[in-house]
Amino acid sequence: MVLIMTAAGLHMNKRVTIAAIVAAAILVPATVYAASPLFITTMIDEPSPIANAGDAMMAEKNEEDAMADDNDRKPDGTMMSKDEAEIDKGSTEDDAMMKDKVLVETGGTFAGAGDGFHNAEGTARVLHLGSGSSVLRLEEFKVTNGPDLYVYLSADKSNADYVSLGRLKASSGNQNYDLPDGIDLSRYDNVIIWCQSFSVYFGGAQLTTTSA
User: Fold this and answer.
1) Strands 43-45 and 172-178
2) Where is the composition biased (Basic and acidic residues) (predicted)?
3) Which residue from 6, 148, 191, 199 could staple onto 124, CB 3.0 to 4.6 Å apart?
């Protein structure tokens, strides 16, 4: 009888050991996955699309200057006067600046979830360019690190109705996200940082529109 009970006990201990190993195999990777970002700070510093537009315009201007002799001719082949050439050049530069100028700016200030743990700060700016494209720019941005963070444009602070702009590029720093054509910012007027894996709101900024 003693031998039978001992064998049963050994069998039970074996089952408990196996269960513990299985639980550890599941919980340890999950814990590491969830906790590791808290100890890793990622940074990025992308230039503003406005600066990029200015650089492109300057390169175009330099190319135009190199061809100034041809450009300064009137349709009849005669050379423009100095004043006429300056007026024509100024008109060309104004047209280029209007193309890449920010026509309207939509923006807001980040705030954390308010739970004492998930925090966010910085500014969200939606730049509507004269070329027709729009960019969400996060400036002086910083958010509590977390796993699987994404940038959403949402109707509120949840993920019930949203448009994903993709995975968050870094937990801090200036960063740009292209907006889908025709997106309705009167509806999706919240920029939120959302953890997809655990459905957790980390922080966000509500957008308001002002003239540039």
Assistant:
1) parallel
2) 70-92
3) 191
